[in-house]
Amino acid sequence: MWQLYQFPLCPFSRKVRLLLGEKGVGYEPVRESPWLRRDEFLDLNPTGQVPVMVDDERGVTLIDSQVICEFFEETVNKAPMLNGTATDRAEIRRLAIWFDTNFYAEITAPLLHERMLKRIVYKQSPDGQALRNAMKAAVNHLDYIDYLLDHRTWLAGPTMSLADLAAAAQISIADYLGGIDWKSHEQAKGWYIRMKSRPSFRPLLSERMEGIPPPADYEKLDL
Amino acid sequence: MWQLYQFPLCPFSRKVRLLLGEKGVGYEPVRESPWLRRDEFLDLNPTGQVPVMVDDERGVTLIDSQVICEFFEETVNKAPMLNGTATDRAEIRRLAIWFDTNFYAEITAPLLHERMLKRIVYKQSPDGQALRNAMKAAVNHLDYIDYLLDHRTWLAGPTMSLADLAAAAQISIADYLGGIDWKSHEQAKGWYIRMKSRPSFRPLLSERMEGIPPPADYEKLDL
């Protein structure tokens, strides 16, 4: 049985969990708080980051969410998430990296810092300006999603792909932390409702981070 | 014919060029200075980063060095750089991402900022403390390379892989900018001499960034 080291508000672990859910791969979640820099976890992964997946029976350790997604894409045929030609796959990977990198740096990371780490690690109040900057950046990313959906059913093309999982994972954490305003983003909202309706997504939405409640409509399908 | 947007000291473009060289894929380099934020280039890639590859005839644009490497790995059989089982490939990707992310953030990026951008963009002198921090971090990474080579011929296993290309690309830029001291890193040095000897590597070593000369032994095989 695979073990998945993660914590409830890690967007990269969520991307992996969505992929495992779509592919029907079972795993046991193991709670890891990377900010504690636990020695045993650093021995497992020198970067100290989650997600990490471990299969003790086969002696396999997978580090980094991109590495994990490529591994299961290569080894499990069900629900391919890198579909199509090499060019199609390049577009899927480009968008997944875009959300993993740019959306995370501009929105998810500052929200996690202000609303989670400051509360549970630094015992400080969030910085209002940093929160406003993140919410402003989120509007630009929702505009970009609207633009992609003008031409496509899913973010990278005609089928759901790793790009949708990466984007939905980041957005779901930003939404949990109150950083998303769907106003005048009807297309992005419609796409996100489709994502939220997936059986792979429902269990993630019911999880809570202790002491940090989500907004009232966080789990709702009717935004 | 592929066009590759890059500048001589971009480590990610170097990784791509090493892979294209090993695979025998021809391309025309196009000089792009991402810090100028040229409108036409931002239209091509909204992140504003190099490398980008364009094939006008086929209407294909490839963005991001990881995306580009996966694309040519999938479409060109010669000189496979993601060799072996899914687990072997996971280890190759893990290490390539390690050098792309951690080595870059701790060493290459600060060296480029202090020794290149401050000279050609900001017209400032480099900060000695930042340079010393980068050189100290480089020692830790060379230790890690020594450790990997205790058990392996190449960084990720028995054959040269994308991990070696990613590491050598970062190290070659750090070396150009005076950030690498090979003292007491015999194994890493031996591996780097092997990398430098590759026909794919030689053309990169002869390129210069205007106004920024490399150290005297930068091109030498006898370090």
UniProtKB/TrEMBL annotation, chains A, B:
One of its GO terms (molecular function) is glutathione transferase activity. Residues 1-80 form the GST N-terminal domain. The keyword ATP-binding does not apply. CDD domains: GST_C_family, GST_N_family. Keywords: Transferase. Residues 85-215 form the GST C-terminal domain. Pfam families: GST_C, GST_N_2. Its EC number is 2.5.1.18. The keyword Transferase applies. It is an enzyme of class 2 (transferase). This is Glutathione S-transferase. It comes from Sphingomonas kyeonggiensis.
